[in-house]
Amino acid sequence: MESSTVLRRRVPDDQSSPLVAPGTIATGDLFTIDEDGYHYIQGRLSDSIIVNGEKVWLPSVRAAAEAIPGVRRSTSRVHAENGEHRYELDVYVDQPSPALAADIKRTLYRLLLRNERPHRITVRPARTTEWHK
pLDDT (tens digit, 9 = 90+) per residue, 57-90? Predict the structure, then answer.
């Protein structure tokens, strides 16, 4: 969305700016626009989901996975299954193995609350040339 009244303040250097362009802020709002130009809010993009009535903050789950020795990065994918939200976690490591996958799963399950646990954890090889945000 764009506005001449977007709050302007200094964002700490270690945080990404919510401003995507001068006067434009990334709100994450999802909306439709009818033929007359009216906006109808449909929802908001979020990095959290509700699992069994509990809010799960996916950046925290990814941070927990990335704190495990040998894990280079992780990504999450949200999907609906039988009307319920679930998410899968991809964990990228240098040397994938069944033993490492079991250790990652065991460590995450020990760290995360029951509703925070991913529906599926997939251990994938990390490519040293791959770029990610």
Answer: 999 999 999 999 999 999 999 888 888 888 999 9
Cα pseudo-dihedral 90, 96, 99, 105, rounded to 10: -10
pTM over 0.85: no
Using pLDDT thresholds of 50, 70 and 90, give the confidence band for residue 19.
low
CATH superfamily of 48-125: ANL, C-terminal domain (3.30.300.30)
Q: Residues with Cβ < 8 Å from 131, sequence gap 6 or more?
A: none
d(CA 96, CA 77): 20
**Segments making up each domain of the chain, as ranges:** 1-45, 48-125
Whole-number Å distance between alpha carbons of 117 and 106: 11
Query: Strand, helix or coil at 59?
Result: helix
29's tokens:
């709002």
